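FAQ: What does a ligand-bound record look like?

Like this one, built around flavin-adenine dinucleotide:
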Amino acid sequence: MDQESRCCLPVKEQPAESKEEEEDDDDDNDSSCGCNAWDVIVVGAGIAGLAAAERLCSRGFRVLVLEAQQRVGGRIWTQWTDKNTSPIEFGAQWIHGQENNPLFDVCTKLDMIASEESDEADELKGEFRMQSGSLISNTTVDHVLNLLLTIRDECANSTPAQFDACNASSVDAFLRESFSEAIRCQNDHDPGLMWAIFEWFLTFEKIDNACPDLRHLSTRAYTDWKICEPYSLVSFRNGYNSITDWLAHRLPPGFLMLNQMVTRIKLTESGATVCINDKNLTADHVIVTVSLGVLKANLISFDPELPEQHQSLIQALGFGTINKIFIRFERRFWDASSPFSLKLVWTGRVPGLPDWVYDVSSFDAVRGRDDMLMAWVGGHGAVAVESESEKQVGEVCRKVISMFTGIQDVPEAVRVICTKWSSNQFVGGSYSHPTTASASLGIGMSEEHLFSPVVGRSPQSDPSSMPARQPRPLILFAGEHTARHFYSSAHGAFASGNQPRSWT
Ligand SMILES: Cc1cc2nc3c(=O)[nH]c(=O)nc-3n(C[C@H](O)[C@H](O)[C@H](O)COP(=O)(O)OP(=O)(O)OC[C@H]3O[C@@H](n4cnc5c(N)ncnc54)[C@H](O)[C@@H]3O)c2cc1C
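The answer part, i.e. the structure of the complex:
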């Protein structure tokens, strides 16, 4: 059973019509009459929930989207911080890749794409510098990164049996062993420096996979994830929220409610009851699109409890945090003729600096902003930095930039913004990854049974009628963590909601 066939809702033949006269959003309602107020309730107005709702509405379903926060988009969050400048992205930054990427297709059709070229801040390009201020030669950087990318490709093409044979089920072990082997007989480059660049690559991988520790990241992270070729980092012209706003505006009035935190989903004879603020709403089906972090935190209780398989999946899969630090300086102090991207290659600890700083991979120029840099922070540091004051973060960043570039007079930061994805209770982190624990249970993100629907029995108006009540999906799942080969991404989340043959 593939993702497209596993969650079918009954087909509706009528196109969507304005249902304003039928809406009664504020009333308590129950399903005692056997007739639910909504065909489908979608929990969460991130890109997955909005895509599902838009798809179902356009097929004639009466769909209600309930969103806990006061905005749509979830982990897509564009901010217009200063007048007359480009926006900044607190969450998703790029569309990754083009072909077989439904998000790229729809955004291209809607003319939302800024450029089809890679973003300036290409993730593995830039100035690799040590804390002494020394620039590492491109020859050494390219040599080490090429070795590591080859190892990563080998990993992506390996089978589980090959991993077992080399006893390296974690990405950390696989990279470490393979890299050690690869540089064993090489005398052209300083081994200490090669290992320092290796450690930088691990920091980058922790961010790329939103994984606090690569010893817990299963090698399936490389084998399960599929790249949409040609691979490039595609930006939005007017911010990532262009697409979520567009989807939200396609819903009929009254079909989307903000500030509505769902606390409980109870299955009933005729469907499900969804509780928000002591109010019950009923529907034939519920689509749960909240993050894996929200599911792990049990923010929503299920009655009856979710099946064992779902629960062990929720526990075993990983959901880590990455954050962004935006720093607007009094003035630009870098050369604008080439894109600024400073990669931090640490060769040792520096007394007085907080631990989170070693989990920062780079400082990059921000598209359309000539006075702003952005740092990516991952690993355990991504969570730790959330409890620092922004002033403190800004001061540490200035100091680090000064150390690595040798620039003594890095100007004052006039504004520092740190995202806080871990502390946001409605997200609880950034995105999901397969762990060694999930792999040891035989679960990869690409598994076909991942987050299958919770089924119930259709109500029988005539008990004597045959055949007996048919199983039907009552709770369905969508969201980034349910996307078989594109988990962790916005296009995976979009595809999980926008399932043309699946929902209808
Ligand atoms: C810092 C960062 C950078 C990223 N960069 C990229 C990138 O460059 N490219 C890329 O493709 N992806 C990126 N991602 C990942 C991408 O943003 C997500 O995969 C995607 O947006 C997830 O969408 P979703 O709809 O599955 O979940 P969400 O966006 O989390 O939507 C779920 C919604 O459910 C709501 N909710 C939660 N609990 C409840 C409740 N109890 N009741 C009602 N509503 C509830 C939430 O408020 C949220 O709006 C990034 C993510 C982060 C955090």
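Follow-up question: can I read anything off the structure? Yes, for example: Confidence is low (pLDDT under 50) at residues 1-7, 13-34.
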